[in-house]
Amino acid sequence: MSKGFLLVLSGPSGSGKGTVSQALMQKRNDIKFSISATTRKPRPTEINGENYFFLSEDEFKHMQENNEFLESAYVHTNYYGTPKKFVFDEIEKGEIVLLEIDVQGALQIKKNYKEAVFIFLLPPTMDELRNRIVKRGTETEEDINTRFNNAFKELDFVGEYDFFVVNDKVENAVNDIEAIIHSEKLRVKRHNDIKLNVLKQGGK
């Protein structure tokens, strides 16, 4: 059985990470979405261990102290993090684990786990990125400007990634990511039984 791997998809706000991730998951059954840990309270429809791992603040900080997260952050009065155990257990099973995350989180992961595959999702143009943020209708003009300016700064980090994908159309972006997945599955380092498999094929 080939080893799985962690696929990190990130990019600036408005690049379409969530939409592309959902489309990719719907198209493939060999991808496991990474489950984050959080200290926020679960919503009525959320299930512990499926939507999030819901932890107390003490539990979360204990895990931080024991270096049990690939990355963690404090956002809007709550802690969020990516547990190593969940990711590594799934990789050992041969799963591709998809983690959708912002640029800062991706850079944290790269520092802690260089074996991951990093994809930077780009908008076709910066004008289109601004349009997408505006169309959400959830941000003030000040918030829109902040996100737009942050996106410019985050583009400086594209060189830290293994691949980039332009999200002009969701279908095209998913196809590009599938091509990356296919090539990663063929990496020699992800297989420890290539010779054995060839010998088996020859014996048929």
Report on the structure:
The protein has helices at residues 17-27, 57-65, 84-92, 103-112, 126-136, 141-154, 170-185, 194-202; strands at 5-10, 31-33, 37-38, 53-54, 69-75, 78-83, 96-101, 117-122, 163-166. It has a single domain (5-38, 94-202), classed as P-loop containing nucleotide triphosphate hydrolases (Rossmann fold, 3-Layer(aba) Sandwich), CATH 3.40.50. The relative contact order is 0.20. The longest helix has 16 residues, at 170-185. It contains eight helices and nine strands. The mean pLDDT is 91.
Summarize the topology.
Layout: E1 5-10, H1 17-27, E2 31-33, E3 37-38, E4 53-54, H2 57-65, E5 69-75, E6 78-83, H3 84-92, E7 96-101, H4 103-112, E8 117-122, H5 126-136, H6 141-154, E9 163-166, H7 170-185, H8 194-202
Parallel strand pairs: 1-7, 1-8, 2-7, 3-4, 8-9
Antiparallel strand pairs: 3-6, 5-6
